[in-house]
Hints:
alpha/beta; five-stranded mixed sheet; 6 helices; 23% helix; globular; binds S-adenosylmethionine
Amino acid sequence: MTGLHTGHKIVNCDKFDRKGLWQSGAFGLDRMSVKPLVNGMETGMMTTAKEHYDALLAKHYTWMFGTSFDEKVEEQTALLARVGIGSPGIAVDLGCGSGFQTFALARLGAQSVLAVDTSQHLLDELSARIDGQDFTTVCTDMTAFPGVLTGHADTIVCMGDSLTHLASHSDVTSLIENVSNKLAVGGHFVISYRDLQSLPEGVDRFIPLQQSDNRIMTCFLEAAGDKVNVHDLIYVKSDGEWELQKSMYQKLVLPLNGLKDELSRSRLDVVFEETVRGFTVLCAKKMK
Ligand SMILES: C[S@@+](CC[C@H](N)C(=O)[O-])C[C@H]1O[C@@H](n2cnc3c(N)ncnc32)[C@H](O)[C@@H]1O
């Protein structure tokens, strides 16, 4: 690890690597000069989550929420406090993105936070906002986190749908077992995600996510067995011209009961559970 400044360590990528309004006709498609930029299926090759974020989503990710970074951190701080994370101790943020939960954990008094993600772009965004907090950013697959965490953690979070980004259901099983092994007794594991079991149908599969003067984002969801194909379509205006940037990747369908069984098998007892409009928050405690 190389130190950037006191309390912040960076590990470079060595391994692998959304609310808005859509007004139909908000701009005249017929009058647009659209240059497409495509990543993914045209080659017949499946795009990994890392490739999708690297090629398209990372640079639009924080904008996509249509709110300020601080408001998101405040929201996540309140959520973590509500699920019972009063004093996070040594914390790990798996699939941290630009850091909403990383900064929330710090606000709740975390001693240190290990922030893990496969997107160097998002880790760089997170790092640029550090103001004296003891964060370590590591660009690697979250399944590899036990190799970069010395000792045990008191709190491990995997929030904002990061869990469904894993490559396979067996990766979820082994991640949960690793989380349990790396948690101190009495420690907590917090997950927030959509289980994606029931998807919108027909034209409702086209979901408006966000828009501003020079960017408009729509997502198209397509069932694919025990996975969902997620197509992100983003029009970006530059020098008066609109460019369509598009890419797709897959998310895992993770039925809630199956996930709770996995937690229980790994000695993690669910102590908080809430599902609101399809979005589930779970907090599990390592009992022994
Ligand atoms: C939907 S975002 C959630 C980010 C953040 N937790 C939040 O709530 O905004 C999913 C994040 O997981 C990361 N990611 C996807 N697959 C990953 C993997 N296998 N290991 C680590 N990070 C991964 C992506 O780069 C992205 O930052």
